[in-house]
Amino acid sequence: MQHRRGLLRWPIFLLLLVVLGSVAPATAQEVPPDVTTYEGWLREALAAARRGDQLGLEAVATNLIETETVVLNDDTRISVDNSWLAAALEPVAPDLPSIADRLGAVLDALIQVGQSAPNDAQQRLTDILSRPPFVEAEPTGNTWWTQFLDWLFDILDRLFRPVADAGAATGDLFGYVVMLICGVLLAGVIIYLLLNMRRSLVHEVRAVAVDDPEANLTATTALQQASTLARDGDYRTAVRYLYLSSLLWLDEQGRLRYDRALTNREYLDRLNSNPDLQARLVPIVNTFDRVWYGYAALDAESFSEYERQVAALRERR
Predict the structure, then answer these.
(1) For a surface tag, which of 95, 169, 230, 312 has the fewest beta carbons within 10 Å of its beta carbon?
(2) Residue 19 in domain
(3) Exposed, middle or buried by CB within 10 Å (0-12, 13-18, 19+), for 243?
(4) Which of 225, 232, 224, 239 has the alpha carbon at shortest distance from 295?
C-alpha cells in the first residue's frame, strides 16, 4: 500500500512542476517595462519610421503595442495605450511620416511626465508671475509728467505774482502791458517745451523698438536668430525663437493669427477646427513650455530634434 502511494506521488509532483513552469514565464511577461526601456523602444521605433524602415518599425512595434503600463523612476505606474500603432501598421504601405510624428509626440509626453520639477520650481514660478506682463509695473514716485506740471505751476506763480502786484500799484494799463509781455514769454516757453517733449517721445518710441527685438520679427528672421543662438550654445533662447518662428509662419500662411497677448494654450484652442495642424503643434508647444518656463535642460541632440519638429510643421501644409 505504501509502495503504491509512493508511486502516485511522483506523477503528482511532476505535474506540479510542469504547471509551475508554465505559470512562471507568463508571470514574468506581465512585469511592465521601466521608463528607460520604454523610452528606448520609442526612440528605436521613431528612428525606424523616419528612415522609412517598415520592417525595423514592425519589429519594435510589438513591444510598444503589448505594453499597457510603464514604471517610472519613482516606482509610479502610468497607463499607456499604443493600439493606434497597430492600426497604423495594418495597411500594406503604412504612412510612416505620420507614424513618426505621432511617436515623436508620445516621446515628448513621456519625457515631460518622467521629468521631475526642480526644487525651486515654485519660487521660479512666483518670480515669473510677479513680473510684467503678468503684473503691471507700479509707477515710480513722481513721473516726468507730474514733475513737469509742478515746474510749470511754479513758473506761473512766480511770473504772475509780481505782475499782479505791479498792476495794483501803478495802474491798469501798465499792468496789462506787463501781463501781455509775460504771456508772450510764457507761450514761447510752452511751445519750446512741447517741441522738446515731442522729440523725447519720438526718441522713446525708437528706443522701445530697439529694446524689443520681436517688434518687427518675421518667421525667417526668427529662424535665423535661433540658428545663431544655437551655434553659441544658448539652446534655451534658441528654442524660444524657433517656437516664435512657427507661430509667425502660421500667421504668414493665414492659418493662425499671431497675437503676443495670447497664451500657448489659447493658440492651440484656436486650432480646434484643424485637428491635424493642432496635433503637429502640440509637441512644439509642450517642448517650449518645458524648456522656457520649466527650465528643462537641453543639449544639441534634443535641440536638433526640436528643429525637425518645427521643419515638419512647415513641410506638411
Answers:
(1) 169
(2) no
(3) buried
(4) 239
Residue 120 lies in a domain: no
Shared-domain flag, residues 254 and 296: yes
Q: Residue 56: which of 37, 66, 68, 43 has the closest Cα?
A: 43
Number of structural domains in the chain: 3
Residues 306 and 285 in one domain: yes
pLDDT in tens, 111-128: 776 555 556 656 766 666
**What tens digit of pLDDT does each residue of 12-37 get?**
544 444 444 444 444 434 688 988 89
Q: Would you state the cell numbers that stand for residue 144, as one nine-digit string?
A: 516726468
Contact 124, 56 (CB under 8 A): no
CA distance 35 to 180: 87
Instruction: Measure Cα distances from 84 to 66, 266, 313 in Å.
Output: 12, 27, 21
Of the chain, the end-to-end C-alpha distance in Å amounts to 85
Instruction: Record the cell numbers describing residue 33, joined without a space.
Output: 517595462
Query: Does a structural domain hold residue 10?
Result: no
Note whether residue 132 is domain-resident: no
CA atoms in the 13 A half-sphere facing the CB of 55: 0
pTM above 0.70, yes or no: no
CB 112 within 8 A of CB 290: yes
Give me 162's grid cell. 509780481
Nearest to 305 by CA among 252, 255, 225, 230: 230
Beta strands in 83-172 (DSSP E): none
Residue identified by cell 520604454 is 38
Q: How many CB atoms lie within 10 A of CB 58?
A: 14
Q: CB neighbours of 192 closer than 8 A, spacing ≥ 6?
A: none
Name beta bridge partners: 69.
79
Integer Cα distance of 265 and 257 in angstroms = 14
Using DSSP, state whether 69 is helix, strand or coil.
Answer: strand
Q: Are strands 69-71 and 77-79 parallel, antiparallel or unpaired?
A: antiparallel
In one letter, which amino acid is 301? E
